[in-house]
Structures are given as C-alpha cells and as structure tokens.
Fold this sequence. Notes:
The complex is a heterodimer of chains A (about 110) and B (about 300).
Chain A: E1 22-28, E2 35-42, H1 46-57, E3 65-70, H2 82-90
Antiparallel strand pairs in A: 1-2, 1-3
Chain B: H1 3-18, H2 31-50, H3 52-56, H4 65-90, H5 96-104, H6 121-139, H7 148-176, H8 180-200, H9 211-216, H10 224-242, E1 252-254, E2 259-261, H11 267-277, H12 281-294, H13 296-308
Antiparallel strand pairs in B: 1-2
One fe (ii) ion binds next to α4 of chain B.
Amino acid sequence: MEIIIKKIPACAGNIMKKNWPLWEVFVRSKNGLDHRHFGSLHAADEEMALENARDVYTRRNEGVSIWVVESKHIRASNPDNNGELFEPAKDKVYRHPTFYILPDELKHM
Amino acid sequence: MTETQIKILEAQFEARIANDEKIEPKDWMPEKYRKTHIRQMSQHAHSEIIGMLPEGNWISRAPSLRRKVALLAKVQDEAGHGLYLYSACETLGITREELYEQLHSGKAKYSSIFNYPTITWADIGAIGWLVDGAAIINQVPLCNTSFGPYACAMVRVCKEESFHQRQGYEIMLTLCKGTVEQKAMAQDALNRWWWPALMMLGPTDDQSVHTAQSMKWKLKRKTNDELRQQFIDQTVPQADILGIKIPDSDLKWNADKGSYDFGEIDWDEFWQVVKGHGPCNKQRMKARVSAWENGAWVRDAAMAYAEKNK
Ligand SMILES: [Fe+2]
Ligand SMILES: [Fe+2]
C-alpha cells in the first residue's frame, strides 16, 4: 500500500499562527509550606503547562504540588507606585509590639 | 524624561546595585543594563541548548545503562538550564521567538566550546570534567548578580551542575583505570579539550571590552584571567589523580605566586571558532534550526488543539 503524504504549503495556516503562551509556575516543596513562584515556561494549554512544569522545575523532588497560571492573568503592582502603596505602612509603628513601653519586670508578654 | 532626570535615575540605580540590592524586571533600569542583560542571558541560554548537541551524540552509544541514564539526565538538565535562562531573559521584555530568531540567524552567539566534535566516549568524560568544570567557575559568582531573575536561575543551575562534573570525572577515572587503550583515549580527550576549555573562560583581560561595566553590575565578580587561573589551579591536581598529562609543556607550579604558570593560548583559534569557522559550527546550527523547523507542525497542532478546547 502506498501512503501519499500531501505537502501542505508552508504558508498555509500562518495567518492563524499563534505562539505558545507564557505560564507562571508555583511549586509547593512539601506539605505545610506555601506554593512559591519557581519561574515560567511556554505551553499550549494548562495540561501541557503542568507537564512541562514537572519536567522543567521538579526533576529532583523539588515539589509535591504544582500550580500554573497563564502569565497574562497576573496583575502586578508597578514599582513606580511603591511609594503610595507601601510607604503608608512605614510610619505605623504602633502596629508592632515594640511600640508599647512596659516595665522590664513584666514577664510572658 | 530630560537628560538630567535620567542621570539622577542612573545614579540612584548604580547606588542600589552597589548597596547589594537586587534589580527586578519592572524596576527602572538604564537601557544599556537591559540590553547587556538580554545579550548575556540569551547567550548563556543558547549555550545550554546548543551544548546538548555534542553530548546528545553519545546517549544512544553510552557503554552501559548506568552511563546512559546519567548522560540522559545531564543533557535533560542542560535543556532545563536553557529554559530557566530563556524565561529569566523574557522578563526584560523580549519574546522567546525573538530570542530563537537571534540564535538561528547567527545574530546571537553561544559558547564556542560547543563547536568542537565529540569523537570518542572519552570526550563525554572530558566535557563533564572540564567544560562543566569551567562553567561552574563562571556561574557560581553569578548567583549573586544584580538582576534578580538571573541570580535565581543561576542558583538553580549551580545546584545541578556538580553532578555533571562528577559524572564526567568518573568516566575519566574509569577509563584511566582501564586498559592501556582506554587510558590513551582519556589522554587524547584531555589533549583536545584542554585548550578550548581554557578559552571558554573568555578573552584575556586586556582584550575583554565589557569587564569594567560588568563588574559594576555584578555580572562579573572576577576577571576572565582570574577565573582561568582558578580553573587551572583546581584542575591540575585532578589530572594528576587520573594519571594523565595536561598538554602544556610550560605548565609548572610557581611557588612565589602560589599558582600555576601556563603556556600561551592560541587566541587566533578562539576567534576563528567565534566567527563561525570552528569544526562543527555549521553542523550545530543546522541541527538546531532543523529541530525547530521540523517541530513547527507539532507546535501548531498543539496550539490548534488548545484553541479548540477553549
Ligand atoms: Fe548547564
Ligand atoms: Fe552542565
């Protein structure tokens, strides 16, 4: 039986051509710890992103659980706004236990 | 932004680095910092990817199952290193496709060492021992570099490298303890890889154009010549344990400076290989580009499938 493979012109489909999107990978290294950002990778869909994350980021038992999320869904704060975002916390010393002046002989507090 | 404003920002930026603060992708950075990092990190990523080719050549012919699984795991690690570095590089606003395009068109370079052939099994030993050895010396200081994502990637890479070097050295050790022919094979591999490994640490300091700037940005902590000296000093005793001879008649211990003197490096050869005239430049690029092009239909099919399932 002869199998004829028709050559598809290289340009066909190029109009539709889309590159694999970028995914962010979060790994929990062991139970009881948070998932931590490990890096990113490219994959066509979420299943492939999980499988690639397994191969790229956990080749030596680095994890027991993986989260992947497409990078475009992450809204990140802008470091230019760090002033208005984080400065206000700086002068709120009364949120820290050391702000309260108590006698030295006081124990267990 | 006016020029004075940029000057002020630059001064603040340099001060942050001097202060050992890390720079993250969304922070303001001088354009030159961004460009230099894209260049260096992508070159590094390309080297990991092209570096799989000379070793991949021996996976199917490894002499035992033990050697085969180890080599396979090592080559897979190198793929991983390439991927960590590409994604770190992408945080600077360049796409993976652009990075590949720079590699495939020859615009971007990769380490010249990978343009040498692996003609015997002993070459796999010599690569792990010498090439990964030199890479470790280059990479360890980068774990502290100023650009956060690069530093993070390097920490992971360095953790994985030590097995690479040990598996290579073990191959050499086994050959050197074997038959006369096996030991001769190990010696031959050392003869061929020694000088290229020295060149891998980069041009001499007086020829190296980026050193001062790279030092400031912590892309370098030691100069090329310092790294090379460190490599030689640590490798000579390792060759002694193997009982094979480093192919340099000028190599001798200098008690005054507490390190080895060594012979002239053939920099002409280095620049020839960098310019594309090494033994395997064409072969490497051809293998890489055809892998990418022949895989296009798989990438497209996976994407079409993903779109359909949305
Ligand atoms: Fe590597
Ligand atoms: Fe390696």
